[in-house]
Amino acid sequence: xxxxxxxxxxxxxxxxxxxxxxxxxxxxxxxxxxxxxxxxxxxxxxxxxxxxxxxxxxxxxxxxxxxxxxxxxxxxxxxxxxxxxxxxxxxxxxxxxxxxxxxxxxxxxxxxxxxxxxxxxxxxxxxxxxxxxxxxxxxxxxxxxxxxxxxxxxxxxxxxxxxxxxxxxxxxxxxxxxxxxxxxxxxxxxxxxxxxxxxxxxxxxxxxxxxxxxxxxxxxxxxxxxxxxxxxxxxxxxxxxxxxxxxxxxxxxxxxxxxxxxxxxxxxxxxxxxxxxxxxxxxxxxxxxxxxxxxxxxxxxxxxxxx
Length: 307
Prior knowledge:
It is a single-pass type I membrane protein. The protein has helices spanning about 15-25, 30-35, 50-65, 105-120, 165-180, 215-230, 255-305, and strands at about 35-40, 70-80, 90-95, 125-130, 135-140, 150-155, 195-200, 200-205, 235-240, 245-250. By secondary structure, it is of the alpha+beta class. Among the domains are: about 30-140, Killer Toxin P4, Chain A, CATH 3.30.430.20; about 150-250, Gnk2 domain, C-X8-C-X2-C motif (Killer Toxin P4, Chain A).
């Protein structure tokens, strides 16, 4: 016997108002950090209900929990499968947030990414998802500490022509991001998250935290060189390799994660105040209409008695 379908709430019901509140609250959360960049799944599938599924669920839960306290972490969880010939002996996973995000924005981003992974990679033995503000990955083949410069995403903005000033600023920003010696004064030396700017051109670069400093530098140098050669005189460009990315734009990027947290909290408070006012208004309208309906029925009954 199939489950009965719940009644659809009418526009005047309190349930509809509550659903409206939650839908509106969810909308403005962290659009900047939640923007989709890329995602992929392994072709190999696991059987639901097996020990490997438990290991996958465990590692994804660990990623979400750890993001509440740090901006990067990795885990290895052995599978409890008794079959020594199984390729699903262990699950490896990591997450990383953009270096300028605060803890709240980071944890929200990772939770959103893990939720989306479950949707786009159902029963997949491995999957990876890059959002604007964070990156998550898991697989049954170890990738931790392995440098990988495979190009995953390349996007170039519209051409600005051969503007010598613009190209000079772009090259200055990219050279700053890619040169650990030149960037030492700005705190870039040895760091995995780097930002720089020249005039209206802003840039950002980041490596995944499981790389060594030398591997990070090698990966970033490759990504930056591809930006220069493949995007040419563009107004902006993104190159995401498997273990690092580099970006530049005339308009800059969403950054300053702590400020973003504060702005989000203020926006939520404003939204709550507006919604509370709307709910009160709707409730008063419902009461008023109900009163009018009862008054009308009362007068109608009185007229019938007179007749």
